[in-house]
Each structure stands twice: as C-alpha cells, then as structure tokens.
Amino acid sequence: MAPASKADKKAALDVAAWLFNIVTSVGIIMVNKALMATHGFSFATTLTGLHFATTTLMALVLRWLGYIQASHLPLPDLIKFVLFANLSIVGMNVSLMWNSVGFYQIAKLCMIPVSCLLEVLFDKIHYSRGTKLSIMVVLAGVAVCTVNDVSVNTKGLIAAVIAVWSTALQQYYVHFLQRKYSLGSFNLLGHTAPVQAASLLILGPFIDFWLTKKRVDAFDYNITAVYFLILSCTIAVGTNLSQFICIGRFTAVSFQVIGHMKTILVLILGFFLFGKEGLNLHVVLGMILAIIGMIWYGNASSKPGGKERRNYSTISEKSHKDGLLSESRELDDKV
Fold this sequence. Notes:
Elements: H1 2-38, H2 44-65, H3 75-98, H4 101-109, H5 111-123, E1 125-127, H6 129-146, H7 154-181, H8 185-212, H9 223-249, H10 252-274, H11 281-302, E2 307-309, H12 315-334
Antiparallel strand pairs: 1-2
Membrane topology: Multi-pass membrane protein
Pfam families: TPT
Domain Sugar phosphate transporter: 23-297
C-alpha cells in the first residue's frame, strides 16, 4: 500500500501543479489582453519587469517569514539564465512585431522540437515512436487552431530563431539548475527574479519605445489601468512560480506539450469574452486533435521506454540525486 499511496500522492501533486500553471497562465493572458487591447498599455517588456519585481517582493516576504531557506546559485549560472530569459522575452516581442501572426505561431510551435533536441543532446533522453507521434499530433492540432496567414522576412526569421532557442534554453535551464543545485522553485525565483526585474525595468522602457514608438511614462495611468496593472502583477507571481514548479517536477518538453492546453483554453475563453469571430469548424477540429495528442503524449511518455535516459549513472549517484530532488520539491508541494 505504501508505494501505491506514494504514487497517488505524486500524481495528485502533479495534477495540482498543472492546474496551478494553467489557471494562472490563462488568467494573466486574459488580464494582459484587457490591459493592452482595451486600455492601451502596450509596454510588454516593462510589464514583464514589473511582474518580476512583484515576484521578488513576494520571495523576500516568504524568506523573512522563514518559508524560503538560504541557498546558493553561482553567478555564472545566474547570468546565463537571466540572459536566456531576457532574450526570450525581448525575442518573442520582436518576433510578434516583425512577423505575421501565422509565422509567429509556427515559431512558438518549434519550441517543442528544439526542447526535445536539447534533452537528447544534454540529458541523453530517448523518445519512443508513440511519444514522437503524439507530439506531432499536438503540434498539428495547435497549428490548425492558431496558424492563419504566413509571411516570412529575413529580420523576422532571425528574431523568431533567437526567441525560440532562448526560450527553449531558459526552460531547460530551469530544470537543470533545480536538479544540479537542489533548488526549490521559490529558491530559484529568489535568485533570478531580482536580476530579471532590475535588468528589464532599466532596459524595458527603451525597448518598448523602440517597438511601439510610445513612452511608458507618458501613459495615462487612470484608476482602471492601474487596477489591471496590479492584478496582472499579482497573478504573475503565481505564473512564474507555477512554471518553475512544473518544469522542476517534469521537463521542458512535457511543460511545452501539455502547456498547449493553455493555448486551447485561451482560444475558448477569448471566443466567449471577446467575441466568437474566428470560431469555425476547422478551429474546433484542431482543438479536439490537440487535446487527443496531449492525452496520447501523457500515456505514451509514462510507459516504460516512452521517455527515458539512454545512459544511467551509478545506483548510488542516482539515489543521491533523487534524494536531493525530493528535498527540493518539499517546498513546492507545500506551496
């Protein structure tokens, strides 16, 4: 009974982590859509800096209350992570500006095969045929839902390549750093969020002016806009934390695959909240195909040989790493 109950507990925590990520991610997208589309706050990079500043404040409060213990992250690893993360944010914004919506969505879909490649190269992960096919089904379904007109230009292609690789490296690095240094999700956020907040709040206004030709200090900060700004920053704490928890518990590839459920939910909520324009048969079929692929991926990757390392370390080393990982997840489970 003990192994079964332990497995049941892990499954329940896994589901809770995914639901936490989906709810906060979909919520922040809806709030940001209202903030940017309705109230005209188009300063995405600066907004992300405010998100990390709020996350930093929350981490400081939790550390003061004793929920976060002191930990160490070497400066070179911290700098590399922040570089990947900031390149991801700026790259995605520039890619959206320079590319059509269709090509932007295709570029986002490319993050899954890139994440797979990183796991194959660095973690020696082997994927079964069923797992590979399920990923292809997910990509096909999401592509049918989101990809419309596709036009490509040189500078847009370069921006998309930078955005895809930096995002994939950032998400891989989350899992890598948690595993290497036995860091819980909020411990890692406590190290990275302040540096990201400082760098994005300094560079963000200049980048946003370059992208939008508008100054963030000239925006009309009325009561409604400020309310949505505060709400966006509050939800962002959960979004950042849930992303680190999910990637720490799973992998960047699994996070990307099942994370496309957020895309489907955003589409559905968008149709209900912002009008049903664009809702047609092929979009509905694409949603169904993507959901089938996600369920298939969950089953295929969990089977023996579905997704496993080719070269295992010695038993003692593996047991040691497993022990460190279980300790690093205790705070995540409590949160």
